[in-house]
Amino acid sequence: MSFARRPVKIPTAGIAPFSRRELLTGMLSVSAIAAATPGRPMISTVTGPVPCNSLGTTLIHEHLLWFGGPGLQHPGYSPIPETLQSDSVDFAVSLLNDAARVGIKTIVDLTPHRPIDLYQQIARRTAVKIIPSTGFYRRAKIPSSWAEIEDEKQMEDRMHKELVQGIDGTSIRAGIIKIASEGAPLTDWEKKVFRAAARVQQATGAPIASHSGPNSAPEQHDLLLRSGAAPRLIVLSHMDVGTASRTERLRALLPLLKQGSYFEVDTFGQDFYTPWSDLTAFLRFFCDAGFANRLFISVDCNWHWENGVKLFEGAEAPTRDPKASQRTYAYMMTFAVPRLLESGFSQKEIDTFLIDNPRRIFCGL
After folding, report:
1. What's 307's domain CATH number?
2. What is the pTM of this model?
């Protein structure tokens, strides 16, 4: 699995020593040697590696089973009860198959604390490619065994192993690194995660997707670059949330794109986060500035069980959005894209967001 056309760098400090076999495994997993033709690297999916140029229409920021996890003992975390696992798998499959029918080919799952056994069951029943992630989400929203890790090297080792060997004892390798902060400034624990992720990216060439926003993005971006991450392999997510359409604020974010990084937006249909006029102004500003090739659009579809009921984000207090359950993966093609076209965006721009840019970041173009 390779994400960039450059030599793989193995850091010499801050990382555990690897055996010759482990080094070879890691290097091979991120090189074009796995591809059918040179320069076309293979990308890890739940069902196995695929050529990066086969991704098609891709949603870069999604979730299959939100907060699905191994046990009820994890605080701040809503695992899927065993009695609901079969229903959860069936429901996830139905959402993916609905997405396939409207032309979505790939989703990038950005839940690094995921039940990979259930993901395998889901992936076998859909044509949609699923790229899994490694990393650490918000500390209050992950299993306590992960949140209690204080050693930066241990964080690094976990991510590296899931990228080059496999997840939870399987041969399924992660294809992207997910990290997050609660806001700004970053906590000491979050800084460890970001530094570790940057070194793992340097070693493997894997993209990094951060749970971010316009307020925390500059600090996150600066720390990643200072820690050795490549800007062209960084996705700063949720950049439209709370972003006013004032030109001066948008201009302040331009340097991040000028360095080669990407922005992702996903609040389509959620005016309580970002009014439609602000969302479109955000995209239009950066497109007109020449950075359409640095923008992703996605849905950030996520749902969880609450008292035996499936709840999508926004359905509960304080928003209580009655349309929350409509925001599935297919929503991108049935709602977001048509409205963007009505708002003056061209089909070429839409294809750049959904097809060209995912291929660019995973192929290292």
Report:
1. 3.20.20.140
2. 0.88
